[in-house]
Amino acid sequence: MTYVSAVTLNAHGVKLEPLAHDHEAGLRAAAADGELWNLRVTSVPSPDETSAFIETALKDREAGHRFAFAVMDEASGTVLGTTSYHDILPEVKRIEIGHTWYAKRAQRTHINTTCKLLVLTHAFDTLGCKVVGWRTDNFNYASQRAIERLGAKKDGVIRGHKLRRDGTIRDTVMYSLHRGEWPEVQAHLNYLLSRPRS
């Protein structure tokens, strides 16, 4: 039995459903909103890479070490982006959240806060995780700020960790959130989402 079973999560008009080939056109359109594949510090697929991106995610799900979601606008059914559980370690009850990106129009909205509330609630309260982690490019300052705003703690930096799309070698910044820290973080995310949205 896999640690992360197929599940659909929803709140505040956002729905996370298991990523499938049916999401390809929507995912391609989301990436095109801002031409996100041109960002040096992310791994957003270009239009001709979208099918392979989904296929890799499905193979990783089958292998049990990644579970990718399509991030949807619940009312319209529009794909806004994607996020994943990855580096799933059932034996120590640890997962990481990553492979996350959103269409430009969804950025700086309640979408990311809602997604994090959904995946963190599921990780801690349903899967029984003891630790949830994140990793990001050392030059992806926006991602680092977003992770830190959640209340995650910086664990350190892995030097010379992996290749970027442009062939340069990146350092990876690691973060984590422990089960004992979750109640305060959960309260803060709910507070943020309770404020009026412009």
TrEMBL record:
Residues 15-153 form the N-acetyltransferase domain. It holds the Pfam family Acetyltransf_3. InterPro entries: Acyl_CoA_acyltransferase, GNAT_dom. This is GNAT family N-acetyltransferase. It comes from Halomonas casei.
